[in-house]
Write a structure and sequence with these properties.
This protein is of the alpha/beta class. Helix content is 22%, strand content 22%. A 5-stranded mixed beta sheet has the order 3-2-4-1-5, with helices on both faces.
C-alpha cells in the first residue's frame, strides 16, 4: 500500500475558561443568536467554540451574520454596539463585561461555564 504523506492537524487550546461567547442583554440563549451579528475571528479557537455551541443547538454559522475581526478587536466592535455578540478570550472578556458599567453584556457561554 503506498504512503500518502498525510498529516493530521488538531487544534489545541488549553485556556481553561478563557474563551467565551458574550452577548447583549437581549440575547439569553445560544439559539437567540440566529439572524444576529456575531464578531469573531474565523479559523480560531473562538470559531471552534462558537461552531460547537451552535451545533449543539441545531444551528450553524449560516444562521448568523458573522463579522470577522481579530479577538482583540471584538472589544471595540462590541463597544460600538455594531454586533449583538462576540467571541474572544481574556483579557478581552473582562473588558467587554465592564462596558456600560457592566450592564451591557454577559457571558452566554464559556469553556469554564456552560450556559443554556
Amino acid at each position: 500500500m503506498p504512503r500518502l504523506g498525510l498529516k493530521v492537524v488538531m487544534p489545541l487550546d488549553y485556556s481553561v475558561g478563557g474563551d467565551a461567547i458574550l452577548a447583549s442583554t437581549a440575547v439569553h440563549d445560544i439559539r437567540d443568536l440566529k439572524g444576529r451579528k456575531v464578531a469573531f475571528q474565523t479559523l480560531s479557537p473562538s470559531d471552534f467554540l462558537l461552531g460547537y455551541a451552535l451545533a449543539q443547538r441545531g444551528l450553524s454559522q449560516k444562521d448568523l451574520q458573522p463579522v470577522n475581526v481579530t479577538p482583540e478587536a471584538v472589544v471595540a466592535t462590541m463597544a460600538t454596539g455594531a454586533v449583538d455578540a462576540g467571541v474572544t478570550y481574556q483579557p478581552s472578556v473582562s473588558m467587554i463585561l465592564k462596558l456600560g458599567g457592566g450592564k451591557l453584556y454577559h457571558v452566554l457561554l464559556s469553556r469554564a461555564r456552560h450556559a443554556a
